[in-house]
Amino acid sequence: MLDDGVGASTVPWNDVDPEASYLPLGLVHGGVQLRLAALPGGTAPQLDGPLVELFGFFDLRYSRWSAWRMRAGIALSYQPHSEQYLGGGELVASSPLALRARVLPISFDMGRWVGLRLGGDVGAQWAPIFGGGMSTSVFGGLTGDLVVLLLDGRLEAGVTGGIQWTAIHRTSRSFPYTYTHAEAVIGLTAAYLVP
Amino acid sequence: MPPDGPPALAGGTLHLTEGGRYAIASDPDRASIHVVHLTSREELHTIELAPEDEPGRIAEDAAGRVHVVLRRAGEVLSLDPESGDVLERRAVCRAPRGIDYDEGSSELVVACAEGSLVRLPAAGGGVASVLPLEPDLRDVIVRSDGTTLVSVFRSAEVLVVRDGVVASRIRPASMESTGFTPRSWVPTVAWRMREHPDGAILVHQHSASSQLGTLGVPSGVYYGGDCLNGVVRSVVSIVDVESGTARSIPLDGLSLVVDGAYAGGQIYLAAAAEPGNATAGFGITSLTGLRRVSETEATADGICIPVWDQLGEERPVTGVAVTSDGQVVAQYREPGTLAVGAYGSLGSVALAGGSALHFGHSIFHEAAGSGATCASCHPEGGDDGHVWRFDVGARRTQTLRGGILETAPFHWSGDVVDGTRVMEGTFVGRMGGARPHDFEIAAFEEWVDALPALPAPDEERAAAERGRALFDASGCGDCHSGRLGTNNQTVDVGTGGRFNVPSLYELVYRAPYLHDGRAATLEGVVGTHGDTGALTDAQRGDLATYLRTL
Predict the structure, then answer these.
(1) CA distance A84 to chain B (A)
(2) ipTM score over 0.85, yes or no
(3) Partners of A148 in the β-ladder
């Protein structure tokens, strides 16, 4: 046994090196994620999709020896929207554009190759008003990614899913208003983490 | 969609071929004709037309050729439904409307709005004969005994033509009703005349109230579709040609019934009003879409029957037909769809051509809060031929076609300066609609202003020239000046008050004349005002001839 009193705490006494096992190395990483998803199951005016989203985030590993991390950031998304005339001056249009803050607190790596990211988001979305202008509303959603970790954890690629509450603005002669309607999200994702 | 927007609603645009193999749908909103295979429920052919063609009624000859009236092009288009080939386009008259096939002579018979029945060989070739009748003809039915029945659009009369002459006229009776205000109802606007399988003739028409009461707040609300309290209601009249009588059944709560089909003891109704929103007032919205009533209900003359049986979505239906095995087929306007069976239960076919949504067109045909639509009194953008009894006196419905914005201010009193005021005063104030958005009003003005005037008939040229000279010499042009025959001023010409100078075009279709409809003919107008009192009868005739050419 070596015991010269120097550096003993840094010697890995077990056969798992937590710092080496979870990649990329380090506690904080930045990254960017692209999602491309379908929005199935909608009916007019929600014959929407596909969703295209760019998510700029940072990863915060809870500790050097932990597989868990938290991912948070800002997502900007676009989806072709739909409109429908209901008669009597009533028109509905879904929202094409959203900006949201997303937090994925349940984010961990299962071994070296698979990662799971779960969380939710809240943000603003804009829906067109017939005759001019956009309505702004707050909305939210739930998100989950199941990814394969590549390039020493710097590249993540896999499937994404979730639910989002899409805003629908109703242009009305009497009582215009905005409401939300749940849409399923299912698609593909790829993310790159800056080492 | 035509660049000026879809044309004003005419309806009656669906035909099922003999044997039930194809459905032929005229689609004026998308300037096309659709051929749909009913068994496979797919659109086989789309015949694209010029934007100004405006396809309308359809007939089929014994050889299976289909013939479609082109209302604005003034032609009949013949096609082979199996191949989708256009066989021929033939000029027929300036404003063709109804069409039928005479099996006895193998001819097509076309009713023309300018006032003639035109025959042409079904197999091809030019016009064979022209029978002058009277203006405003609509539908034509050639019966197996050779009798020809012709409907008149704004009076809802049925002309019985035998051996080239009008042997009789059958007019649905006026009716009386009680309610908030006792009303008399007179027949107007025969949207569609069709033959029942048992030989009866059904006319889908309006009835207009003769008593409107005050024009002012708060009671100036125009109800439509309401049997007892409306100002316009939908009626189906059942005409017995042999006895020369008709009994009329008001249909409660329907607006703009433009077509009907009959089978199995049922009457299927195509109501084409755009759904409107309820106002803060009575919250009445008229029913639209595909409806059904039992023939056993439609028995008592003048008794309203409610039309509750809904067979499809509440959106405009412009044509209805029934297959030989009793399945109803409905043509929806927007989105363009052919639905087979109730609620399309046996299949729906999306018709090619994209959306024909136009806010101006929609508002014009919208059942406003009270259920009345603009088209209820201004069918196809014209007038209903009716004289209304207001507290201020009798007032004749005016036409909106031919470039209406140029004739501002509006109404007989000239008190409405623009389209926004028309919306607020009439659509909101009288019809009970919710004030449209500004972009809707702009679209409405643009659409109405683009409605073309109906073509004038040919008149004897020499007489028209003499009449024109008299028009100028008598000073008529002092007020009736400009492209549309009005200087837009509000003047008193001794006819009972100050009135906005009416335009002078489409006159042959606008009887009766003057603000209160006192003149049944153009000859009767001459001498009522202006320097025309000393004209001889012959001169009056010449002047009237000239006016008919405008």
Answers:
(1) 10
(2) no
(3) A114, A157
Contact between A88 and B440 using a beta-carbon 8 Å cutoff: no
Residue B139 and residue B170 in contact, taking contact as beta carbons nearer than 8 Å: no
Are A90 and B274 inside 8 Å of each other by CB?
no
User: Between A and B, how many residue pairs show a Cβ–Cβ distance under 8 A?
Assistant: 41
What percent of chain A is helix, strand and coil (3-state, nearest 5)?
Answer: 5, 65, 35
Counting beta carbons within 10 angstroms of the beta carbon of residue B202, is it exposed (0 to 12), middle (13 to 18) or buried (19 or more)?
Answer: buried
Q: Is the pLDDT of residue B218 over 60?
A: no
Question: Cis peptide before B335, with omega less than 30 degrees from 0?
Answer: yes
**Residue B94 near chain A (CB below 8 Å):** no
pLDDT for B217: 34
pLDDT 10s digits, B120-161: 999 999 999 999 999 999 999 999 998 999 999 999 999 999
Q: Is B275 on the interface with A (CB under 8 A)?
A: yes
Neighbours of A111 (CB within 10 A): 10
Residue A131 to residue B438, Cβ atoms within 8 A: yes
Sheet holding B201-209, edge to edge: B175-177, B183-195, B201-209, B232-240, B245-252, B305-306
- Confidence (pLDDT) at B171: 94
Find, among A131, A122, A133, the residue nearest to A180 by Cα.
A122
Q: Nearest C-alpha of chain A: how many angstroms from B190? A: 26
The token duo for B139 is: 């539908």
Q: In what helix (H) or strand (E) does residue B44 lie, and over which residues does it extend?
A: strand B42-48
Yes or no, beta carbons of B315 and A87 under 8 Å apart:
yes
**Contact (CB<8Å) B274/A130:** no
Structural contact between residues B341 and B232, judged by C-beta atoms closer than 8 angstroms: no
Q: Measured between beta carbons, which residues in chain A are less than 8 angstroms from residue B437? A: 89, 130-131, 171, 173
B29 touches chain A (CB under 8 A): no
Using alpha carbons, select from B170, B202, B209, B214 the residue that is nearest to residue B188: B209
Q: Do A130 and B437 touch (CB under 8 A)?
A: yes
**Strand duo A177-194 + A28-38: pairing:** antiparallel
Radius of gyration of chain A measured on its C-alpha atoms: 22
pLDDT on residue B499: 93
Sequence-distant (6+) residues with CB within 8 A of B117 are B109, B110, B111, B130, B131, B133, B137, B140, B148, B150, B161
Residue A5: per-residue pLDDT: 60
Q: Tell me phi and psi for residue B15, to 5 degrees.
A: -140, 135
Single-letter code of the amino acid located at B145: D
Record the pTM. Answer: 0.87
